[in-house]
Amino acid sequence: MSCSAVASLRVAAIPLVSRPGDPPHDVARIVDGLALAARDDIALALFPEVCLDSHGSMAKLHRADLDALAEPLDGPSISAVADAVERLGVAAGVGFVERAAGGRLFNSYAVCLPDGARHCHRKLHAFGHRRISNGDRFTVFDTAWGVRVGILIGDDNSLVENARMTALMGATLLLAPHRSAGVKRGGDRSTQPVPMEQSLRCWLPARAADNGMFVVSSEGGETDGRERSGGAGMIVDPYGRVLAASRAADALIAADLEMGLIDESAGQQWLMARRPELYGLLTRSGHHATDFEPRRAASRGAVAISFAQVGRDRPIR
């Protein structure tokens, strides 16, 4: 895979703390973040999953409340962000509840570029509300920087196949926005099935190293005016090394992506060494492979075996 046109790309994760049900407030905070990013020569700023329409317990929302949060890709919130992107020259990724043609709803993520282009990914594994549909395709696109970008939202990143697919489609920079637990009255909290701490500390660096790509993650938080929850960001290089990280809400976490590291990474070598003819089981439905002999159950009366660990410098007796 050839190197990108730019030698280095400066990016930022901004773990925005959103105000539930108040997109204009969140848009204003995003514009403020973009202005700060422009002063730091950031080319791309990543905001969290559903940061424009954040609601911690989305699964409990009534139909009318969810409909009130949703808007199309050319709706007022995304359009306001796109205007700020063109004015400030900093690309932005923002999450929202998308109302598509026909009234279907998606947990979506839009990347607005300074040239006016907008790219939208619909979450593949959308469990937040029964009315929110799953996306049905991967999102990978080229940029003016010569960097090919992929998007996976939240637990899209938990399945190794999803990150591998974006890499096979040529992505060398993966945007991985997340959303944390939300604040609810009475102290009730709604969480993702996969703990965010695992994603930040373990899984996202593994996805970067396995596929020889940079990964930028921004975890969103919420405030109800009295209490805050969530807020974290991480930028990882193609070797799985953390370039920058913070658990401070609303912080700007920045790093320079040295694009020459991509071709040198082990992950890119592993991609070239793949043998697709061996991977037929990956395309089959069901939770378990069927082409292998099942494990034989241990016979009754089996004898337990004990093991001992022997140090190298100690004699074996």
From TrEMBL:
InterPro entries: Aliph_Amidase/BUP (IPR050345), C-N_Hydrolase (IPR003010), C-N_Hydrolase_sf (IPR036526). It comes from the Bacteria. The keyword Hydrolase applies. Pfam families: CN_hydrolase. The keyword Transcription does not apply. Residues 9-259 form the CN hydrolase domain. GO terms for molecular function: hydrolase activity, acting on carbon-nitrogen (but not peptide) bonds, in linear amides. Keywords: Hydrolase. This is Carbon-nitrogen hydrolase. It comes from Paraburkholderia aromaticivorans.
